[in-house]
Amino acid sequence: MNTINQDDTEKLQVLKKLAATVYLCQVLAFAFAGLPLLVGVVINFMKQDQVQGTWLESHFDWQIKTVWMTLAGFALSGLTFGLGVGLFILIPTVILLVYRIVIGWTALNANQAVAE
Question: What is the pLDDT of residues 8-34, one digit of tens each?
């Protein structure tokens, strides 16, 4: 019985490291024009079935929603930049991205699910 629990613990640790990697990708998006956001969300989608039923599932969902919100905000900002509105959409989008990274990574380091 101990090996099953140990295997589950090791699996969760690997998946926790993946979640941390995705948060890092989200941070790196600021330096690399958003490309790491896409890398991170691909990781989320590829491993999403492995986190079902664990506390890490909330992190994967949180990260995926973060990317969709960020991409939507960036797209809307880009489309309205010429109208003089884009900056007013871009700034809250960036603040939201930072907020979601901080909240998610803090909960991850505390081994807790993200509270929506």
Answer: 889 999 999 999 999 999 999 999 988
Distance CA 20, CA 109 (A): 9
Structure tokens at 14: 């690997």
Average model confidence (pLDDT) across the chain: 94
Domain ranges of the chain: 2-109
The one-letter code for the residue type at 27 is: V
Nearest to 45 by CA among 17, 65, 73: 65
- Quote the CA–CA distance of 24 and 45 in Å, as a whole number: 16
DSSP 82: G
DSSP string, 9-70: HHHHHHHHHHHHHHHHHHHHTTTTTTHHHHHHHHHHHHHGGGSTTSTHHHHHHHHHHHHHHH
